[in-house]
Amino acid sequence: MKSVCMVVQSVYDFDPRVKRKAEALVAAGYSVDVLALGNGSGAKNYVLNGINVWTVSLGKKRGSLVRYAFEYFAFFAWTMYRVPVLMRTRKYAVIDVNTLPDFLIFAPFIARWMGARLVLDMHEITPEFYRSKYGIAEGSWIVQALKWQEKISFDFADHVITINEPVEDLLVSRGLPRAKCTVMMNAADTARFVGVPVTQDPSDRFVLIYHGTLTRIYGLDLAIEAFALAKDRMPGAEFWILGSGTEQPALAAQASAPGLNGAVKLIGQVPAGDIPKWLSKSTVGVLPIRTDALLEYAFPNKLPEYIIMGKPTIISRLRAIRHYFSEDALAFAEPGNVADLAEQMVRLYQDPGLRRTLAENAAREYTPIRWDIMKQRYLDIVGELSGMTATAAAMPASTGSAVR
Q: How far apart are the first and last CA of the chain?
């Protein structure tokens, strides 16, 4: 049995992308260890769905660049120590390093010398991430330094994974060989939705829904403002917001405005396993994401979940989303344009036929990037690098080289 180590500077239990990859590997016959941040239970090592998780107690208190640097280097040092210790007995064939930071790929350099192959999964594009977070100008020396460390990081890796084709094109323009790269989308695992009724109009109510982190980038304040603007043309409509985050108090105050009459409901955080049931009770998904240098490349996990559940979706017209979906599949609104967002709400409220058409077209356009295809791409990469050309008996053999 081949062993794989996955490294991620986040809490593994709540990182859907890393969890999907780890569980796919275990199902395909690999032994998998994960190095991650502690989950708050105090356990240094635990097993979750067949995956050994090793943790370090390092809180995420980010805000300033100095704090980011401290956390990055502390986790880097722990990984640099922990991987060779485990490597002596586990004999990792592949080590999958997940960003941020990009330079985390250098932490398992001793394991590489011992024979492991390195995969760099670039969850974010670092220069754009810092431009977005801190308003740093593209031509600044900080951004140029980040581009340099990005390049030496993907040069050091044996293979690179990116999150969508526009991001791949951007990295190729910065020196990444296309042949060394595979696109693995943030697709949802359809197994989570088995047994939940897929309906577009579950009742006479018209319910807009958002689920996820409540932060400014997702534009929920704009969505509430748009709902207030449109509500008189949508009698009986409701807007459900599921999740928690830094914007929750401000959104709660906005939702309590007298003119909304309780139609905007902040449900709070719900267990991940309950999300499909909530979606089944809704009518339309809403993703009013703001735009900037980073968010133009965003492809949120929530979008595939709406599509799988047959929900037409109102979403900001962003580069990465437009790359995969046409105007016939999603109800696009201009980012930051409250009036346009309100018009899309009314448009879908008034036209059940349009809702059905959008949902059907989105499902068809989503087919080439669904999770079972992304999963096989990932298994192909690991199989090729590890020499494990066949998966477990329940899985077919890899069909060749890693593909885009």
A: 27
The pTM of the whole model exceeds 0.90: no
Exposed, middle or buried: residue 246 (CB in 10 Å: 0-12, 13-18, 19+)?
exposed
pLDDT by residue (tens digit) across 337-370? 999 999 999 999 999 999 999 999 999 999 999 9
CATH of range 190-367; options 3.40.50.2300, 3.20.20.150, 3.60.15.10, 3.40.50.2000: 3.40.50.2000
To which H or E segment does residue 248 belong? helix 248-255
- Please choose, from the candidates 296, 223, 227, the residue with its C-alpha nearest in 3D space to the C-alpha of residue 262: 227
- The DSSP call for residue 123 is S
Query: 346 by DSSP, 3-state: which?
Result: helix
d(CA 63, CA 290): 20
- As annotated, the residues of the chain forming the CATH 3.40.50.2000 domain(s) are 3-187+370-386, 190-367
Q: Which residue has the tokens 């024979």?
A: 115
Residue 199 has pLDDT above 80, yes or no: no
Residue whose entry in the numeric block shows the structure tokens 């049931």: 277
Q: By mean pLDDT, which of 67-81, 311-325, 377-391 is the weakest?
A: 377-391
Please state the separation of Cα 118 from the chain's center in Å: 21
Determine the angle formed by the axes of helices 16-27 and 371-386, rounding to 10 degrees.
60
User: Which pairs from 106-114 meet CB under 8 Å and 24+ separation?
Assistant: 106/76, 106/153, 106/156, 107/7, 107/76, 107/79, 107/80, 107/83, 108/5, 108/7, 108/79, 108/80, 108/83, 108/84, 109/80, 110/80, 110/83, 110/84, 111/5, 111/83, 111/84, 111/87, 114/84, 114/87
Record the tokens describing residue 343, joined without a space: 């018009």
Cα(93)–Cα(114) distance, integer angstroms: 10
Domain covering 3-187+370-386, topology:
Rossmann fold (3.40.50)
